[in-house]
Amino acid sequence: MSTPTRPKAEEERLALLARIAEALERLAPKDPAPPDWGAADAFVWNAEAFALEPVPTVSRVPLALLKGIDRVRDILLDNTLRFARGLPANNALLWGARGMGKSSLVKAVHAEAARVAPPGPALVEIHREDIGSLPRLMALARETDRRCLLFCDDLSFDRDDTSYKSLKAVLEGGLGGRPANVLFYATSNRRHLMPRDMMENERSTAINPSEAVEEKVSLSDRFGLWLGFHACAQDDYLAMIEGYVAYYGLGLARDGWQAEAIEWAATRGARSGRVAWQFLQDLAGRKGKAL
């Protein structure tokens, strides 16, 4: 008995469909390669490519140069070292005054953890606008044996921004929970990560004001450590500059720059680590000293 043959038109359609399928397969993005966690000690999360970009050299300030924040420095360092050694540790929210070294402290304690408990955790920076991709980053981190310190600088949420809900679930909620090898550090100018007028508006318009505000505030509750940074006193401000002068070997006596430093802070209406560093750059430049 002979096998029935397909009509020529049907064969042509099947061939066309096969070519289309092959073309679509070529155009489809390939699955990203698994990250090489040993490529660097620090990475930046590329949310669009779902990939980790190694950072060969991290821009950071030595821990010893961070003045006026001794208490929060010691707390965060202890928490980070425990995490690096495989012991229980808390997510941390560093909040408060601008320019007082919140992000600098995170990078400094990461370097200290790598020195004291090598190789130390991998530091992974995730940008505020990429928080929605955090579950995917957590999934990648879950697949490695290396401990991962996720870091979001200047984290805050504005009115009508609902991405904070996914962050809440990732940090402590959900069926999977936070992987044991992952810790999350964030810096913010706001203690509860929400603008004050947004919280006050919730109180005034909600049927149950306390419940409406509680939902917003509960995000910051996911951070076991709340470390506050406040504007520094003049003595701390001058000590910051003195530490920089000594560290960079500028050889300048304090009485030669102190009055200028006080005036510098007065013209900016603030004293902080950032203002101290800006003054040092100006001072070194005027004195012909390289940093």
Question: How many strands, which pairing sense, and closed or not: the largest β-sheet?
Answer: 7 strands, mixed
Q: Kindly provide the name of the CATH class of the largest domain.
A: Alpha Beta
Which bin fits the share of residues in helices?
40-55%
Oligomeric category: single chain
Distance between the termini: 91 Å
CATH topology of the largest domain: Rossmann fold
Broad shape: elongated
As residue ranges, the low-confidence spans are: 198-209
Give the number of helices: 10
Number of strands: 7
Task: Provide the fold topology.
Elements: H1 8-27, E1 42-46, E2 51-54, H2 70-84, E3 92-96, H3 102-116, E4 122-125, H4 134-142, E5 148-152, H5 163-171, E6 182-188, H6 196-205, H7 209-217, E7 225-229, H8 234-247, H9 258-268, H10 273-286
Parallel strand pairs: 1-4, 3-6, 3-7, 4-5, 5-6
Antiparallel strand pairs: 1-2
What does this structure look like?
- The chain is α/β, with parallel strands linked by helices and 291 residues long.
- It has two domains: 42-229, 3-Layer(aba) Sandwich (Rossmann fold); 234-286.
- The protein has ten helices and seven strands.
- It has helices spanning 8-27, 70-84, 102-116, 134-142, 163-171, 196-205, 209-217, 234-247, 258-268, 273-286, and strands spanning 42-46, 51-54, 92-96, 122-125, 148-152, 182-188, 225-229.
- The protein has a seven-stranded mixed beta sheet with strand order 2-1-4-5-6-3-7.
- The longest helix has 20 residues, at 8-27.
